[in-house]
Amino acid sequence: MTVEAAIVLPLVFFFLLNLSCAIELIRLHGNLQLALWNTGSRLAVYGHAREDAELAPFFSALYIRDQVLDYTGQHYLEQSPLAGGTDGFLFWKNEVGTTKDEIDIVMVYPAAPWIEVAGYEPFWMANRYFGHIWNGYEIPVDAGREDTSAEMVYVTEYGQVYHMDRSCTHLQLSIRTVGTGEVDGLRNQWGKKYASCKMCGKGDKPDTLYVAEEGESYHYDLGCPGLKRTIHEVYRDEIPGYTCCSRCQG
């Protein structure tokens, strides 16, 4: 048993040591990828100004290397399976905005086990960041219209007039609750009596009704579409049957 233990225990120790080294290699690769991603994302934000003399150093391989070291930590890298320590980083490809406003950074480095073993030589690992430089955005226009300078107006879902101003008071409802017995004596802002709503005014009148100063109907239901202002912005020439709001005219 002593002889067997003397043979087996070193093999078990060797296996566990290599397993822990493999785990550390995966951890090293993940940490460096996160550091490279953070660095590349920062470069993407400033990429639109890469020709600025003050920002030019940000896009050098030396700056990228320093940022990766700062994110991962000098002490951690010196203790990791990174062969040669922090001097082992190489940047084979570092392109920032050369074509199509893209960032492409490839970082390679040698990795090796903590204890040199015959037949287990250092090998190369690589991380890559590929992204697009932020260069602003533009509001899309209607590509189907030749005349993009056409007048824009505002309409409601159930209205038959258009409004020149989004803040027109006809687009703002003042809803109040009234009793069934008093609705016949009420008048809207134009002095007209309220009529029953064609959408919700069916059946017996409830004890409570809803009216708006800007409306012409009384409503049984507060959730009636006639009490809502769903406003759409459209081109004036798309609504030929609509007339201009009297208040917007003047």
Commentary on this structure:
It is a single chain. By secondary structure, the protein is an alpha/beta fold. It has helices at residues 2-46, 61-72, 74-79, 246-249, and strands at 90-96, 102-111, 123-132, 152-156, 161-162, 175-179, 195-196, 208-212, 217-218, 231-235, 243-244. The strands form five sheets. It has a three-stranded antiparallel β-sheet with strand order 1-2-3, covered by helices on one side. The chain has a two-stranded antiparallel ribbon with strand order 4-10. A two-stranded parallel sheet has the order 5-11. Strand 1 and strand 2 (102-111) form a beta hairpin. Helix 1 crosses helix 2. The mean pLDDT is 78.
Mean of all residue-level pLDDT scores = 78
Described by strand count, sense and barrel closure, the largest sheet is: 3 strands, antiparallel
In which range does the helix fraction lie? 25-40%
Structural class: alpha/beta
In the predicted model, the low-confidence regions spanning at least 5 consecutive residues are: none
- Distinct helical segment count: 4
Radius of gyration: 36 Å
The 3D shape can be described as: elongated
Beta-strand proportion? 15-25%
